[in-house]
Amino acid sequence: MPTQPRHQPCPGKCGRKIRLAQEQCASCHTQAKTDKRLSSSAIQRLSRKAEGKTTIEDRLREENTELRTSMSAASAVVKRLTEKGAFEDRLIAEVADTLKANPYRPKFAKPNGRVRQSDAHAHEMMVVVSDAHYPEVVDPSAAFGLAYTADIARRRLEYMRDTVIRYKKLRESAYPVQKLTIAVIGDMLSGSIHEELEVTNEMPMSAALVNMSYMLHDMGSTLAQEFPAVEMVVMPGNHPRITKKPRFKGKWDNWEYVMGLFVKALAQRQYTVTVPKDMVYRHKIFDLNIGLTHGDGVKAASAFGMPWYSMRRRQDALQSLLKTRELQQLDLLCYGHFHQLCFMEGQGCSLFVNGSIKGGDEFSIGTGYSSQEPVQGLLTFHPKHGITDLSRINLGHIV
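RESULT FIELD:
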């Protein structure tokens, strides 16, 4: 009897030799015979394969082995799929039985029908108007097609007025709106503190002040014909200040303070105009205390264009100051200045930041490669539930 070799070629196709006692090749992991003692025919086949002299029978036997392995793997897959299908069938059957044993019954009470207007609480609205930067000019050839002129500013203000009226009429079927606040919170005038603006503004400061005063009066007087009561609050921004360096003493001493007094003189008794000297004016809507300010005092590094951390710190500090002065704390604080419409819910006091009428310009592109869309905010208040709606008045289509 020939001597049985201690090694044999790997049954796989890697070409390595493995010990007869091994169960699989360490290289390709092909399964080998677990029996240490091979038959003479098996030894002969392995020898022929090692010498490259395999016969047809050897190749058929190898193919048969490979087919059996493949069939075994396929059978395992079919078994798993069959078991999964059986589980899904059982699940569907159980759901069907459960639905049959528990037929649908309404969980909600039937609606009471349309609430009559006589039963609805009267609401109030506040449109926030800021950052027109009139009469700044934005050159489309230098600002990726962005354009802004005094005429665009006028038409956007006119569109705002019409949109406020449309929202009021749409909601009248559900509830009456008893008052509108027009919160003008700064930078309606471009000012002349920056030399480039003084040179490129479409008209001198005196003419811009008169024109903007007339436009705000037109807005107030026409809205007074639609709402039972209208109050306009005019707060100064930082652009129309008289000195190049910001001041805190007499911060109200500003071209927009003059503009507010001009509008007040034009309004007479058609609507109410308030021109406060407060750094943060506290305006009442129902029982809510609304803080109105421009927001230029917020100085901090920003995240995503908004200095939220600094805003929150100032808000908390203001609430603490009001408390120590035994004054009513704020329920909502409104900013302009940042040209980005945002609302941040707060515990006790929420924060609203208005967008701008102007939109992007050469400055925003040159410093941050950015341009916020021109947009303004319209808030609706319920006497018990506070803010019930925040509507965007988009202005970017008016060019």
